[in-house]
Design brief:
Elements: H1 2-17, H2 20-29, H3 36-39, H4 45-54, H5 64-72, H6 76-84, H7 101-112, H8 115-124, H9 140-149, H10 159-168, H11 170-185, H12 191-195, E1 224-225, E2 228-229, H13 232-237, H14 243-251, E3 264-272, H15 287-300, E4 303-309, H16 313-325, E5 331-339, E6 341-342, E7 346-348, E8 354-356, H17 357-362, E9 377-382, E10 406-407, E11 422-426, E12 435-437, E13 441-442, H18 443-455, H19 462-474, E14 488-491
Parallel strand pairs: 3-4, 3-5, 5-9, 9-11
Antiparallel strand pairs: 1-2, 6-7, 7-8, 10-12, 11-14, 12-13
Helix pairs in contact: 7-11, 10-11, 15-18, 18-19
Amino acid sequence: MQTVLEFQRVLLKVQVSLTVEEVQDLVFLCSDLLSLKDLSTVTSAGQLFSLLENRDLLSWEDPSLLLELLRILKRSSLIRSLISEDVMPTNGTIYSQQISPYRQLLYELSESICEQDLKNIKFLLLKTLPRKKLEKDTTLLQLFLEMEKEDLLDGNNLDVLQKIIADINPSLEKRIIQYKTESCETGGMVIAQEIGDITPALYSPAPPSLLTSCTSGLGNLQYKVNEQPVGAGEMARNRDLSDFDKCQIVMARQIKQYKMKGDKRGVCLIINNCDFKDCGLRNRDGTDIDKKSLEVVFQWLGFEVLTEQNCDRHQILQVLRDLADRDHTSADCVVCCVLSHGQIKGIVGVDGQIVTYRELIETLSPSQCPSLFKKPKLFFIQACRGTDDQPAAFPQIFPDDEVMPVSDAAVPRDSIPEMADYLLAMSTVPHYVSYREKDSGTWFIQSLCHNMKLLVPRGVDLLSILTQVNSDVSKKTDKSGLKKQMPQPEFTLTKRVVFPPPKTRPPLP
């Protein structure tokens, strides 16, 4: 309670230190993190901070967004004051860039445009934007937002803005060209948002318990300079970066994203198998914790969540056929989560019968569901793929009341069919078990949900999130220190899967 009160004092101090214009600047800078509807009602820094806290973007434990916003506003003295007075934690605080370079570019341009230049810009936009959007009191940042609404401006489309700026202030055009060049060098991806820059003058390195770096949008590509994680722009400029690494970054520029702008995000089907007493297998106690976590996360992401309980082989295939019969034309993708016992060949229904992985995913193939053609079909499988522990552990006796993980094993691997746009995220590699704790769910699903909540708002692509899940789960073990698990994603995706940061969703619990 004391730390919460202290943090509120920090926010109050910042609030009274900011001008009305600076609050408007903060609102613009946060327009990728919060919904425009929520931001339209913000008239004070306090209201903005409350929204960020409700979305778990700002807290005593992680004040990095506040520090970043103050840095962009060039309020260095205020930052030094907060730190020197020891009113907020700095030990281990990561400077993780959540405000995109694109948003910072627009803010930088607005700071360099004089009043006469703004009038000239409004004149040039007379035939493009409604007159009421070009009124005298409209600021340049507000104009940028209107241009975004009309699809005239975004991080990958600066041509209209560049042409206008070139006519008004040619010197500023060079800044836009520089941004385009850096975006090309970094593959058009804001890696700094995902790894996090560190400002040595203000922050110390994070302890191991904090997320100091995660895989970038380039898949497994990750760079360190002097053993400190750095952002993509800095990487591209670093002289020590090899020609091969630079080539890899430039090549990633060609990796496009699946469109995520439909009327609906899509359906998320969760098959949750717990009761196996009829076929002689152990019940999967704790699986309802995973089910609830998945429901919360995918509803937050904008999916229509459907849950099916205790399905046998026939029912599993039938609910997938029902899903395939739906019209997904207005959807962006489809998700299927299966929580069950498993073997190397596939998942096990509550009747003990196997549904192979091939059968599982072919139900949503383009021939069975044309409306999902060229759309990502994402499968998350929590099930064993064998009976081996990883690595093999010597027998060990535990007290009866001691909590220990149990496997989802049921006492020759199918590959993904040669078709595009599939992801099969498996909780473990072939031949090995995966673990489930009765009181807290499975290692894989809980890590998946945690990292989705943490990294989706920062623009991290799904394969990179799964790489972080791999890292997290690989570090877990039971109390004996002998049981390990290694998840494995398999995919035929042709583009990057990046979920838009939820803007109108309720805060996560």
